[in-house]
Design goal:
The protein has 2 domains: 378 residues, Outer membrane efflux proteins (OEP), CATH 1.20.1600.10; 71 residues, Outer membrane efflux proteins (OEP), CATH 2.20.200. By secondary structure, the chain is of the alpha+beta class. Helix 5 packs antiparallel against helix 6. Strands 1, 2, 3, 4 and 5 form a 5-stranded antiparallel beta sheet that branches. It is 60% helix and 9% strand.
Length: 508
């Protein structure tokens, strides 16, 4: 009996040493991580914006940026336009826009993926309690019951009960960084989703501003055409009076009527675009178009001076660039996941519980059962499957790098496009305002000469048409100027900065 006890203790000690040795291997090898070290991809960055020379900036805005803090967009960027109605609409976007809500849900889903991957750091504990009542065949020979032991030929002895309550523990040692790289990849994707959310928010806010100033522009055009209709109505009455006295011809009256009716039709047509812009804004702020309205108010605002910083800051200010860069980091971590498949996986399995044939003895010490031991798994042949998966991961990484660089180039293009638009529009508006002044003078002279009987009414019609066209073009140029300002702010990333991204630790 003593020898059996000594043998049992020796076996237990040997098992304990095996488990301890396995744990030591895990500790020493646990710091190993496969996969390349991540380096942020390079991109071509200009030293200065081509369109933003001091002369151009002064021409556009008439002021000079003060250093070092006045060249950054801060807070709610739309407040730069000093328009209370726009402020209200931009705030509603944050609350009710469905694209933003969908992007926020995607971010939460990506964050939950980080938690799912992180759970693999810890053991998996399961239990499968069972109750089994079985009968062994009378013709099956000397069979043993589930728990072992002698059996007789009596029919009652062939009925068995087995009650068990096992607890199984499985834990994979992260020897080669598979789990760590998976957690990192999911964390980088969650960061990219957070940047996607901010990019969606910025895009929708900018779109609201653009549609808003398009709508205000339609109000300004309607005001212009309504004023022209009143002026043409007065001219028609004057022409009729001259016709009644025999000074003017019926042709002059017909020309005046034609111009009046044409302008009235153009004024009415403006209502279509205004309604469409109003409905588009309703969609962006998450309200039904049927119950949403914006009071009529002609465009009066001037574009605000927009701080633009230096080109190198654009990489930190654009959320779409940040999202693309985080996906490069994610692809890099996925390479480490695929490389870990080339190395053996070490699993530690343990099981303990109680098993008995009688419920009265279920939790007694003799009914205990347990087992523990490591398992080493290694793929010996897979016909190049792992190599192909690794090559795919490298190709995906190269694709994300190319996509990142393309987004950076596109960002600089958008900034330069809108800077050029604002610079050229500022010049064009000065020229167009001068054309409007000349047109007004031309109309005044043509009207006076017509009243004096020197020229025909055709000259008045031509002068009125030229003035209206120039006034309309001036309004449309101001609409372009306001929308280009909103687009420039969007291209600069608004007031967002990459430092606002959640850190990997916060995501875990």
């Amino acid at each position: 009996m003593k020898r059996d006890e000594m043998d049992r203790r020796k076996r237990n000690a040997a098992g304990f040493r095996l488990v301890t040795f396995s744990l030591l291997i895990m500790i020493f090898i646990g710091a190993c991580t496969t996969g390349p070290k991540y380096r942020k991809p390079t991109a071509t960055i200009p030293k200065v914006y081509k369109e933003m020379t001091p002369e151009n900036f002064k021409e556009m805005y008439g002021w000079k940026v003060a250093r070092p803090m006045d060249d950054q967009i801060r807070g709610n960027w739309w407040e730069m336009f000093n328009d209370p109605q726009l402020n209200d609409l931009a705030e509603q976007v944050n609350i009710s826009n469905q694209n933003i809500a969908a992007a926020a849900a995607n971010f939460r889903a990506a964050r939950s993926m980080v938690k799912q991957a992180r759970s693999e750091y810890f053991p998996l504990v399961t239990t499968t309690p069972s109750y089994t009542r079985s009968r062994v065949s009378s013709l099956g020979g000397q069979l043993s019951p589930p728990g072992g032991g002698p059996i007789t030929n009596s029919s009652t002895a062939r009925l068995f009960t087995d009650i068990s309550l096992p607890f199984d523990v499985t834990w994979e040692a992260d020897l080669w960084g598979r789990i760590r790289n998976t957690v990192s990849a999911n964390a980088f994707e969650a960061q990219a989703s957070a940047a996607d959310l901010e990019n969606t928010r910025l895009s929708v806010q900018a779109q609201v501003a653009i549609f808003y100033y398009e709508l205000r522009g339609q109000d300004a055009l309607k005001q212009l055409f309504d004023a022209s209709v009143r002026a043409f109505q007065e001219t028609l009455e004057l022409t009729r009076a001259r016709f009644d006295t025999g000074i003017a011809s019926d042709q002059d009256v017909a020309q005046a009527e034609t111009q009046l009716k044409t302008t009235q039709a153009q004024a009415t047509d403006l209502g279509i675009q205004r309604a469409q812009f109003e409905h588009a804004i309703a969609l962006l702020v998450g309200q039904p178009a049927s119950t949403f309205s914006i009071p009529v108010e002609p465009l009066k605002q001037e574009p605000p001076p927009i701080p633009f910083g230096v080109p190198s800051e654009l990489l930190e200010r654009r959320p779409d660039i940040a999202a693309a860069e985080r996906r490069v980091a994610e692809a890099n971590a996925q390479i480490g996941v695929t490389k870990a498949a080339f190395f053996p996986a070490l699993l530690l399995n343990a099981s303990a519980g109680f098993e008995t044939s009688s419920i009265t003895n279920w939790f007694t010490w003799p009914s205990r059962v347990w087992s523990v031991g490591p398992t080493l798994a290694q793929t010996l042949f897979d016909a190049g499957h792992r190599k192909a998966v690794t090559e795919q991961a490298w190709a995906t990484y190269d694709g994300t790098v190319a996509n990142y660089r393309e987004i950076v180039l596109t960002a600089f293009q958008e900034v330069e496009d809108n800077l050029a638009a604002l610079r050229i529009l500022s010049q064009e508006l000065k020229q167009q305002d001068a054309a409007v002044d000349s047109s007004e003078r031309f109309l005044s002279l043509a009207t006076d000469r017509y009243k004096l009987g020197i020229d025909s009414y055709l000259n008045v019609v031509a002068a009125q048409t030229i003035l209206l066209n120039n006034q309309e073009l001036a309004v449309r140029l101001r609409i372009e100027q306001m929308t280009a300002s909103a687009q420039l702010i969007k291209a600069l990333g608004g007031s967002w900065n990459a430092s606002q991204l959640p850190t990997v630790r916060e995501l875990k």
